[in-house]
Inverse folding.
DNA sequence: CAATGTGTTACCATAATGGTAACACTAAGG
DNA sequence: CCTTAGTGTTACCATTATGGTAACACATTG
C-alpha cells in the first residue's frame, strides 16, 4: 500500500493554497492533519526538495507554495514523496536462472508493472492541487479559509 | 510498495501455463521462484480463492490453472493477491473536522486515488498470463519447457 | 538577545512481509 | 491397508517501513 505520506502531502499543499501568500507553520498544519509537527516537516522536506514548496526560516516564518497550485499535479506530489521508487516489488531473491521462466520473468514483469505505474501517474498528472482545492470547496460550500 | 506477492503470483501462473495440463508441485515452483514451498502455497491459496487455480490433492497432485491463460489478466492476479485492498493509504488519524480542508480532504482524496487505482487496474487488465508467457518466450527464443 | 520557526537526527512501537517448520488431511498405488 | 507424496494452514521469527515523539542546531525577526 502506498504510504499515507501522499495523502498528507496533498493535504498540506491544499492548506498552503488556502494561505494565499502567508507562510503557514508546521504546527498549524499539524493541527489540521492531526499529527505531529515533525511529521509535517519531514514531508515538507521532501516537497521542498522536489521544488514544490519553499520555506521561510526564522520567527514569523513557515512554508509557501513554490509555484501556483494550478502548476502542481498530484503526479508531482506522488513522485516527490515516493522519491521515484518503483511501485511494484519484484522477487526478493533472484529467480532460478536455470528455469526458462525464472530466467526471463523479471524483464517481462518490469515492462508490465512499469506500464501500470505509468498509467497511474498519468491519471494523477491530470489533477492539480488547484483542482483538489476546488473539490474541497464544493464539498463544503460555506467554507472559511481558517480553522475555528 | 506493492508486495512481491504479485510478481511471484504472475511467475507461478506462468509456470503453470508451461505445465500444459500436468499439475506442478509447490516444491517445483519454489525451485524456480527461489523461495520456500510454503510461500508458494500461501500465494496459491489466494489464487485458488480467486478461482484462478485449482489444486489436486494427494500423491501425484499439484496445481493447475483453473481456466485458460488467455482468460487470466494481470488485473485478476493483482486483485487476487491484494485481496481488494485500497492502493493508497489515507491519513492514520482522522484530520481535524474543525478545519475546512481537514473536514473534506479525505472525500476528495478517495476520488482521486480511486481514479488512479482504476487506471492502474485497467492497464493490468489489458495483459494476460498468455501474453506474459509469450513475452517470456520471446525474451529467450530457444526456450525449453522444463528446468534443467 | 529572546522568541519563534525550520531542518534534521535519533529512537520507539507497530504493522506488514517473507522465510521456516510443523502438522492435519487427502489421494494414489503398491 | 499402508506408505508415499502432495496440499492447506497455522504459528513463529527476523527484517523492514512507517509514523509518532523528543531533542537540538540553526535562522530570522524585532
Amino acid at each position: 500500500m502506498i504510504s499515507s505520506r501522499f495523502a498528507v502531502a496533498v493535504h498540506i499543499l491544499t492548506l498552503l493554497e488556502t494561505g494565499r501568500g502567508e507562510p503557514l507553520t508546521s504546527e498549524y498544519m499539524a493541527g489540521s492533519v492531526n499529527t505531529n509537527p515533525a511529521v509535517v516537516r519531514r514531508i515538507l522536506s521532501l516537497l521542498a526538495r522536489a521544488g514544490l514548496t519553499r520555506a521561510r526560516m526564522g520567527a514569523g516564518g513557515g512554508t509557501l507554495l513554490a509555484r501556483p497550485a494550478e502548476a502542481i499535479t498530484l503526479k508531482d506530489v506522488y513522485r516527490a514523496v515516493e522519491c521515484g521508487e518503483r511501485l511494484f516489488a519484484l522477487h526478493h531473491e533472484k529467480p532460478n536462472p536455470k528455469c526458462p521462466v525464472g530466467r526471463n520473468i523479471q524483464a517481462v514483469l518490469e515492462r508490465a508493472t512499469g506500464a501500470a505505474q505509468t498509467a497511474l501517474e498519468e491519471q494523477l498528472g491530470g489533477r492539480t492541487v488547484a483542482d483538489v482545492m476546488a473539490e474541497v470547496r464544493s464539498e463544503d460550500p460555506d467554507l472559511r479559509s481558517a480553522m475555528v
Observations:
- Residues 1, 23, 25-27, 38, 41-42, 44-45, 48, 55-63, 92 of chain A lie near DNA strand C (CB under 10 Å from a C1').
- The longest strand of chain A covers residues 53-56.
